[in-house]
Amino acid sequence: MSATEENNAVPQYELKRALGPLQLMGLGIGIIIGAGIFVSTGTTAANFAGPSVVISYLIAGFGCALAGLCYAEFSSMIPVAGSAYSYTFATFGKFLAWLIGWDLILEYLAAGSAVAVGWSGYFNGMMADFGINLPVHLSTSPVVWNVDQTFGLSGAVMNLPAFFLILFLTALLVIGIRASATFNGIMVLLKLAVVMLVIGFGLQYVTMENLTPFIPENTGTFGEFGWSGIVRASGVVFFAYIGFDCVSAAAQEAKDPQRNMPIGILGSLALCTVLYVLMCIVMTGVTPYTNLGVSKPVTVAVQAMGPQLNWLVPLVNFGATLGLATVVLGLLLGQSRIFYAMSRDGMLPQLFSKVHPTFRTPYLSTILIGIVAALLSAFLPENLLIELVAIGTLAAFVLVCLSVIILRKTHPNVPRPFRTPWVPIVPIGGMLVCFGMMAGLPLDTWIRFVVWGLLGLVVYFFYARKHARTPSYALKRD
Asked: What is the model's pTM?
């Protein structure tokens, strides 16, 4: 068969299955160990929780563990691209599937853009280590989002490093999933090495003085320290854990997904939770938490350990720069696969599910998403984007947990290579924890979330409802 005939023989919607269990775990770790450790840990400690941000990560990790068990069941039972969107379509039909898919579009766009902004701060620091100082007006966001939920202007023009990072990674994703996974795997190993160095050296410099009071007194405003601050911080840092959702989004490109998807999801989640807790203790234990509300909090923590560890600062900047790039890569991958899945089912125009004949990737959706995410990262601040990600992610997790309970009743005989234990206790627990974290987010975040949802309803009734078709993976009642 000629090369042309072979390409033509590839089904229109077929993606290449190229990811094994280690690559799936690497994808999850690459996204989970990123902005949470290198950026969010410091800013949430400084603004919301103090040293008790450790508790916030444990709450978020517990909620993710419960939701992750539900995701593992779905990803082994319905191994297709699309993550929570596809699971919802298989369970509830097109209307709720559209709502959750629209929600995921917001989640991934905001997440990729937010991490790119965080990456820019460390990239600027790494360049400074080499004596290259980038102009502030071309390397920071022109918009500022204050703790009191008000906007401001920084005087900057745009964040060029973040903008170009997303464009570069978009090109890499168009080339192919295997090349992207290989690049991700190398970066993950380097990033984990830096994280382990910071934890290993930092534990020696932790003092009880910096960890006291462990739960700072509330300022009188909900969400600013005290237990309400812990709850609010848990909703914000939850953003750090969405890597396992990205793993499920790549299910259609996994080899032996019934076995490998649960390994990728649960393995990456367990390892990363331990690392997050240790990093929280180190960062808030070596310096007062009030010093961590900056764009490079890990660098500040390392500098506080003393001049004898100054050699570690360039490594932190280098590791964070590489590490955050892998997060953006995974988020852009997940977003393009959500677009691919929704287009495949008629929810979005068919061009978004068009697969490149050579690279076997959904290149048009990848390019569009990359351009939009690049523009968001160029002009919006990280903290505003993170809150949008958190509420969108939590809403998706609630629906996935509910779906497991419903499917056990309506489709008891569908093969489940991995079964969520203790149903309905685990799914109900996941729903309650996730919704509790949603409740801790500020009103303005809820308003933007509702406005986005209303815009989605307009698109649904004018386009998606008329063009949607029942997918082949939809489950029929037993």
From this structure: 0.77
